[in-house]
Amino acid sequence: MNAIDYRLMFVTDDRIKDDTLFFKILEASLKGGTTIVQLREKQLHTKLFYHRAQQAKSICETYNVPLIINDRVDIALAINADGVHLGQNDMPVNIARKLLGENKIIGLSVSNIQQAEASNRLNINYIGISPIFSTNTKTKDLDKPMGISGLKNIRKISNNPIVCIGGVDEKNVSEIIKNGANGIAVVSAISKAKNPENAAKYLKQLL
Ligand code: TZP
Ligand code: MG
Q: Residues in the chain with pLDDT < 70?
């Protein structure tokens, strides 16, 4: 697999129901310099999720940016996405790897040092520290924020690239990168910005 640029992951905002707006924001984020997209849908039925994924894939291809799918290995396979992002309670990594093959990206959320240690023994491409700071965007199954001290501890022991998610914005991005993360993953800092393209551009500059 080519080296993946994890610097700026845009995680799509499933609060946006209107498809036109949803894809407008996705495209703006790509114009602004998003380096990888994670399609995250917690509420859509499978058929609608699949259609959003198909469309997202075609937009990401135009910008030559990889698209990964949150939770759903089946949808990643169906649209030939570049990979998946899995949580601790999603499909086991070894099974996802079997299904996806060696050339796809698998990201895994970790919320503590034990999970990060265990992830060193898994066939994954990156870990997501989840959450690094507090956030209102995700309310279900959210662990305690790990903060910069958590990031530092995980950096010391992890073999994998690290992406930080949760409450990341232009005010804290520099500190995250300074402390060893390879990238940030954001929802609101782009999706809720007045101008999502400029927001992505600004975040990218800070990376
Ligand atoms: N996983 C951990 S925190 C989070 C997810 C999907 C939400 C991040 O959203 P925001 O708006 O960037 O804080
Ligand atoms: Mg999940």
A: 1-2
State which ligand 1 atom lies nearest to the alpha carbon of 167. Answer: 13
Q: Is the pTM of this model over 0.90?
A: yes
Residue 21: its H or E element: helix 19-31
The CA–CA distances, whole Å, from 39 to 67, 137, 150 equal 7, 15, 26
The angle formed by the CA atoms of residues 73, 191 and 39, to the nearest 5 degrees, is 5
Ligand positioned closest to the Cα atom of 140: 1
Asked if 99 and 118 count as a contact pair (C-beta separation under 8 A), the reply is no
Quick check: helix, strand or coil at residue 30?
helix
Topology of 8-206 in CATH? TIM Barrel (3.20.20)
Q: Does residue 135 line the site of ligand 1, with CB under 6 A?
A: yes
Alpha-carbon distance values, 48 to 20, 77, 89, 149, 151 (Å): 14, 16, 23, 40, 36
pLDDT tens digits for 56-82?
A: 999 999 999 999 999 999 999 999 999
Q: Which 3 state secondary structure label does DSSP give 126?
A: strand
With beta carbons less than 8 A apart as the criterion, state whether 108 and 86 touch.
yes
- Residue 147's region, left for phi above 0, alpha for psi from -120 to 50, else beta, is left
